[in-house]
Amino acid sequence: MTDDVSPRPPAPPVLTPEEAAAHPFWRFSLSVYGRAGVAEAALALQNRRGADVNLLLFLLWRTATGHDVSDALLSRAATVSRDWQAAVVGPVRRARKAVKGMGGLYPRLKETELACEQAEQMALAGLVDDAAPDATAPAETRRLAAETGLRAYLSTLPGAPMAGEEEALEALVRAALAER
After folding, report:
1. Would you give per-residue pLDDT tens digits along the chain (180 residues)?
2. Residue 59: other Cβ atoms inside 10 A
3. Whose C-alpha in 32, 67, 78, 84 is 20 to 30 A from the C-alpha of 146?
């Protein structure tokens, strides 16, 4: 019999809970995800296209703060995301869904899932060393970079674009750029 063990995903940077909560990427994600239409758009892309919401937010954070997303960065980020989702977030999410309606375990697993998502975000943020915003990047440049980055990521996912995909992307970009 062989062990069915997934390879370990890259370890996120070791941060205290306070440091992780104060990280610019995490703060950006909480703010943007809480805007009207963003959760619905991101979850539609997750549920119908297999997109990772954290990777969508990472791409939006990078471009909204005036940084480009190179093909190499997108590839590294997609690998981190895929590995982390498969080995960590996915199993916790499946367990949470399996116990829904069974009492006190569900909220604890939901909290654990959120902590795993935050750790994934720190792993993604650890891929870049220039987290400071680039105040010189014009809004139109940031918008085009966000749209290009999101489309490049979605083009790597299996299947055809979903109905309403352009509207979902527009909602995400609009919310992310409103943050600045």
Report:
1. 334 444 556 666 666 778 778 889 999 999 999 999 999 999 999 999 999 999 999 999 999 999 989 999 999 999 999 999 999 999 999 999 999 988 889 999 999 999 999 999 999 998 987 667 777 888 899 999 999 999 999 999 988 898 999 999 999 999 999 854
2. 27
3. 84
CA angle at residue 179 from 151 to 132, to 5 degrees? 85
**In the block, which residue shows the tokens 């969508």?**
56
Question: What's the sign of the alpha-carbon dihedral 79, 57, 70, 20?
Answer: negative
- In this prediction, residue 17 carries a pLDDT of 74
Distance CA 37, CA 111 (A): 23
Residues 6 or more apart whose CB falls under 8 angstroms from that of 94 comprise none
How big is the CA angle at 151 (ends 146 and 156), to the nearest 5 degrees?
135
Question: From CA 101, how far away is CA 107, in angstroms rounded?
Answer: 10
Of 14, 3, 6, 152, give the one whose Cα is nearest residue 83.
Answer: 6
Q: What is the dihedral of CA 93, 96, 97, 100, to 10 degrees?
A: -160
CA distance 174 to 104: 37
